[in-house]
């Protein structure tokens, strides 16, 4: 029994859950008593909440590492480098409070004095006076009689340039049409778009029409001899008749609505590679270098011959106002001719201008629709330049090296831009801003040189034809809806009369 008594004594000695009556106060008891005393002193109106703790609190400094601290003021300066978490929370609260709607602020039941008292009791200072991350209200008004002589350098108001939207130009064609048996000849003009939305294309000795409205394909005509081929196409202004230049030196006139040939005009001695209309006058350019004017209303159609080129006339364009005819040839010349008078001038007509700045064949010609006295021309492989001319003064306004053969040009009036088609070496289509001639975008959709580019009736789409035997449609100039509505209103107020060629 003695050994059991000894074990009971050992257990009683090792037992730790019995209270120690004469030991020091526990750490958690000291912290609890100090926090309760500081809370009571913080609620007292005569004392601040930032009272230091008693001597019984664990020292906050490590002995031997005394470091001077920045004194803390109520509502500290913005530039104080040390921030405590309480101030950051207050700043966040102030920012969210400023973003509250006016109704929420007005519904607050507490008065400003009560809020101030609570703020001092809880935080030790008024949160409305805290400066850290606090964005003040409206700026103070200037004193009476104050004058500010400083100029305004910057403004937060949005400028028209920042509001303006840039249009999207697709880098891929909107539609692709097959053009088999297309003749791969740089000097021919095998594509034209009518005002009635019919796209005419010459494929060897055939002419096809594509109805862009319905998507139907219409076979129009075929030359009698298999060895002959179509060299040029040109629609009349009203889009009812199509002129066809052939390799057998003739110019045919077709009534598209009835799909019937109206007449065949023979006057040239070589193939007819270029055509252009001016009301009832049809001008045709030949490989012989001659330009013939045809009055399609009379039996003796050939009324005038222009002899300014020594080689093939591959470019021919009448100005929008009908005053001038521009011609470009394989002799690198650009000629501007006056309007044909009624009755014709025989062979006496002389060129107003004859420019020889290009170093290659000039096939690409385009008149500016909104500036009838402006003409753009493009040179072949040896030149590669686009030149813009003022017909009134006879001077070259601007010149641009495109680094590629220029085969066709057309002005796009919707955005006042210039479109150029290219052969060697890029085989692409480029849109230029006019008159700065800064590049807007490059369109890559052809694997061979692009021969011609033509514009749709609404000027929103261009069609390009290439040696890869495809026709690409690019919807690159769709108008803004507001601008389009204004254009329709202007057109509805003006009455336009069209004169038939017969």
From TrEMBL:
Ranges for the WD repeats: 223-264, 306-337, 380-399, 443-475
Task: Report the SUPFAM superfamilies cross-referenced here.
Answer: WD40 repeat-like
**Statement: the UniProt record of this protein carries the keyword Repeat:** yes
From the UniProt entry, list the residue stretches annotated as the region Disordered: 27-80
Which superkingdom is the protein from? Eukaryota
Q: What range(s) does the CDC20/Fizzy WD40 domain occupy?
A: 177-474
Question: An example of a Gene Ontology BP annotation on this entry?
Answer: anaphase-promoting complex-dependent catabolic process
- Does the record carry Thylakoid as a key word? no
State the Gene3D superfamilies in the record. Answer: YVTN repeat-like/Quinoprotein amine dehydrogenase (2.130.10.10)
Q: Which UniProt keywords apply?
A: Repeat, WD repeat
InterPro entries, alphabetized = Cdc20/Fizzy, WD40/YVTN_repeat-like_dom_sf, WD40_CDC20-Fz, WD40_repeat_dom_sf, WD40_rpt
Q: Name one GO molecular function term.
A: ubiquitin ligase activator activity
Its Gene Ontology cellular component terms are: anaphase-promoting complex
**Compositional bias per record (Low complexity), positions renumbered to this chain:** 31-63
Q: Which family does it belong to?
A: Belongs to the WD repeat CDC20/Fizzy family.
Q: What is this protein called?
A: Cell division cycle 20 homolog
Q: Which organism is it from?
A: Takifugu rubripes
